[in-house]
Amino acid sequence: MCGCNCNNNLDKHDALQQVIDELRNEPGCLMPIMQRAQDIYGYLPEEVMNHIAKELDIPREDVVFAMDAIVEPVSLYEPVYSDGGDAICVMDQVSDTHNTDELWTDRIALKDALNRLDERERRILSLRFYEGKTQMEVSAEIGISQAQVSRLEKGAMERIKSQL
Fold first, then answer.
1. Do the beta carbons of residue 108 and residue 72 sit within 8 Å?
2. Which end of the chain is more exposed for a tag (fewer CB within 10 A), N or C?
3. How many domains does the chain have?
4. Could you tell me the residue range of the domain that residue 58 belongs to?
5. H-assigned helices in 2-134
């Protein structure tokens, strides 16, 4: 015996397969299968969701959405650990790298700096960096030379950098 719970995992897989085979032809079978799978495993590992999707011939995303529907919501203030002192809450364990305080303040500062530019400079930067146009395309659209676009763009960027 290897001590790795191989037999236990095989038993769970067999039980899951039996549930899938039993319910696969029922209308709306995904939710009952997901609930029973969660009962079997206690949680839903990635390979279980992939297996259910494959067996039912549905997109994996549908299985993920179903999983979200059966999982009880948890408060961010739910304690996950306490040693008698301050409790550690779910919020303390979750990180968000996309919406950090630094990004918020950077965006506000950038917006303020852009608002301090004149309309023509904002238009040039918008065409260049938001619409991806070349300096030649911008010059044709605005009616000035490419050299002027370059000079105005450089000056605007320097003013923005000095304000950030």
1. no
2. N
3. 2
4. 7-70
5. 6-23, 30-41, 46-56, 60-70, 90-93, 101-115, 119-125
